[in-house]
Design a protein that fits this description.
Elements (H helix, E strand, L loop, with lengths): L1 H21 L8 H16 L6 H33 L1 H15 L2 H16 L3 H9 L11 H48 L11 H25 L7 H11 L9 H11 L3 E7 L2 E8 L9 H28 L2
Antiparallel strand pairs: 1-2
């Protein structure tokens, strides 16, 4: 068991290193792409336009079950085969799965590309790049709206896309990490309150909320603990966080966003356009000043510091739980 634990800890560190160095290279087929294709294919077969809300929820639950447990079974099978062949192959396969499950470098890279477009004065390019990261309509955004969109998606994905996969990877290894990734991908594709997905995506959306409950709060705590305050009051940041964290419709998204807004002294939230409709979200943070392009570099630093604290803690937890 000790050697198994050591190999898992080493695999996680190697996977984190690969993510930091390579990110998600375009030449490597990412499993999330195949997950997305599988979700679309099964959804087309199951989605019942003419059925009752109850039937839609049942069939949406079936989609959730097939994708989530199918993903976990596939990962477990790969690891079992690798372990049967050779211990080093097991560690290598685990490292690859950890690498592909973490998205820190790619999130940082995409945010930096939007920053560079804004610095060059190319607002249209910045809008286009942001559209790949968010579901909101970006076509007519102002520069401030683009920046706010980047800040919100980076803070939320620091939890959803980075620390939550790390959390479940440390608890349950690559199988747990990819079970979470499957649920998070389901939520991003069918977990909307649109006519098509209101009932069909309910199970996926609710399960994503459940699984992100602890990681979202840990992320906010890490942000408040190590965030780049730049001379601003830590006490004020905690005060604004406690005031605003539960304002959002999502039970989780408000935690990292409120923490970041409190640390930086800005406001996040407000009006945004989704699927052609204007949605008013509650304002988070004190709003001492408008946001600017430089805040994107700041939120990247916040991401890196939070991850820099979470990774060694996660490895330590893995070592204790799996000894």
């Amino acid at each position: 068991m000790t050697s198994f634990m050591n190999s898992m800890a080493m695999a996680l560190l190697l996977g984190a290193l690969l993510d930091q160095v390579l990110g998600d290279p375009s030449w490597f087929p990412h499993p999330v792409i195949f997950l997305g294709r599988a979700i679309l294919r099964i959804e087309k077969k199951l989605h019942p336009w003419e059925k009752s809300p109850k039937s839609q929820r049942i069939l949406g639950g079936l989609l959730f079950f097939v994708i989530t447990f199918g993903t976990m079974a596939a990962v477990a099978l790969v690891l079992l085969l690798a372990r049967h062949i050779a211990p080093w192959l097991f560690m290598f396969a685990s490292a690859l799965l950890f690498w592909l499950g973490l998205a820190k470098r790619s999130l940082e890279r995409e945010a930096r590309r939007i920053y560079e477009a804004l610095v060059k004065g190319d607002l249209e390019d910045a809008r286009g790049k942001l559209s790949y990261l968010v579901t909101r309509d970006t076509g007519h955004m102002s520069e401030e709206e683009v920046v706010k969109g980047v800040l919100e998606t980076v803070t939320e994905n620091t939890s959803d896309g980075v620390l939550a996969p790390l959390f479940y990877g440390c608890l349950l290894g690559p199988v747990g990490m990819w079970g979470y990734k499957a649920i998070n991908t389901l939520d991003s594709m069918v977990g909307y309150k649109t006519p098509r997905h209101l009932h069909f995506g309910r199970v996926s959306a609710k399960m994503d909320d459940v699984l992100n409950y602890v990681p979202a709060r840990l992320t906010a705590f890490f942000m408040l603990l190590v965030g780049p305050y730049g001379g601003r009051s830590r006490r004020d940041a905690w005060t604004y966080y406690h005031r605003d964290r539960d304002k959002t419709e999502s039970p989780n998204a408000g935690h990292p966003e409120a923490a970041a807004a409190g640390i930086r002294g800005i406001s996040l939230g407000g009006e945004a356009r989704y699927f052609g409709k204007v949605v008013s979200k509650p304002l988070l943070g004190p709003g001492h000043r408008p946001v600017g392009a430089g805040d994107i570099l700041w939120v990247i630093k916040l991401l890196n510091r939070s991850y820099g604290l979470a990774l060694p803690l996660g490895v330590a937890v893995l070592a204790v739980l799996w000894r």
